[in-house]
Amino acid sequence: MTEQTAKGNGRSRHIILTSHPSRFGSQALPIEWGATDPLKRGPIVASLSDPEHRNVIGTHSGAYAIYRALAVASGSLQADHRPDLTDTSPVTSIGPHPSWVGADKIVSLDPFGALVGEVYQPLIQQGYDIRPTIAVTQAHIQMPELQEAVQKGRIAEDGKIMKPGGDLVVTKAAIEPVWYLPGVAQRLGITEADLRYALFEQTGGMFPELVTRPDIQVFLPPIGGITVYMLGDLNAITHPDRPLAVRVHDECNGSDVFGSDICTCRPYLVHGIEACIQTAQAGGAGVIVYFRKEGRALGEVTKFLVYNARKRQAGGDRADAYFTRTECVAGVQDVRFQELMPDVLHWLGISRIDRFVSMSDMKYNAITHAGIEIVERVPIPDELVPADAKVEIEAKKAAGYFSGSAGALTAEALARIQGRDLI
Ligand SMILES: [Zn+2]
User: Fold this and answer.
1) pLDDT digits (tens, 9 = 90+) for 19-55
2) What is the dihedral of CA 313, 317, 320, 324, to 10 degrees?
3) 300 CA to middle of ligand 1, Å?
4) Distance, CA 176 to ligand 1 centroid (Å)?
5) What InterPro entries does the database record attribute to this sequence (predicted)?
6) Is 334 among the catalytic positions?
7) Cα-to-centroid distance, 145 and ligand 1 (Å)
């Protein structure tokens, strides 16, 4: 591709497509993914303020890059704005851990992403616009279910992990995706060429460099990221003799935020937080990993279409037809690709999880295949499952999800599990 002329803001403008080799990253620093020394690994330069320095495809902020574009287009943001990062450094340091080394354990985030202001300071002083892809802060959180757990004596307000009044003290990290394409392809068992072509084609050709620049191996995809909530003494997360509870949760806005009763997402999330508090109060730590993968990463429009199809199908909403309806609408049951999920656990240096609060066989398999031991799997207690969510939970157990001592239902019993009608 070469150069084109476009019009914008009432004036003629020269557009230089970055797929032109001589116009892209001629002063770019090389990236050696997995190198121990961050300077040898090389910084991720995804900012647009100096195209000559860029050494990756895509840019910062995931999907929010589009809103940044609107701000620039509407004149409220200077296109070449560089962030003032004074006082933005992490409140606590995470890593480096041995799991950061090598090009196979972490392929979908930059382990040095929170440390760029520290480890790349000499390059920043030379004028490289290197931005954090991870931010780490502290907060208090409040959830009404946790107050109930205090009242029933399952957890205590110890004044440290949980303050009087139920404020839970957390350290939280926000993580933007940074994909090392050869590693992502290897994780999914496909060729890098096939991965690049599908990404290029399925984004409507949004990133031409995916196919024109095989030498650029790192891609910042325009997708949602990860939030990690950590409880208790963070040193316990990697300590071999101290217990660790983990829940890996995929976003479900309808349940997590609005309390929808069609699924078990919020009750299970809260149960995971309760397990984290108990484990932290027993001298360990707890980790909740929250992925922006709404509706099994099929999105909320698809999800609501499926809800309608489930409720309106002949015979009503049934556990034995739960996955079929998703397949009819989306063509596939699930696109969360848990193969990439354990990267965040490796970023935290986790090698053993004592209490894994999840019934998902896909999550369990991904974590154990990544070399992380899981000691105990914690299913959601029956009393926390909303009535209308029985369809989902029994369908998942029948499909191979961990079901504890109760086990999965027979096909006949599964067909008898019915949800509510639409209204
Ligand atoms: Zn849900």
Assistant:
1) 554 445 678 999 999 999 999 999 999 999 999 999 9
2) 50
3) 11
4) 23
5) GTP_CH_N (IPR022163), GTP_cyclohydro_II (IPR032677), RibA (IPR000926), RibA-like_sf (IPR036144)
6) yes
7) 17
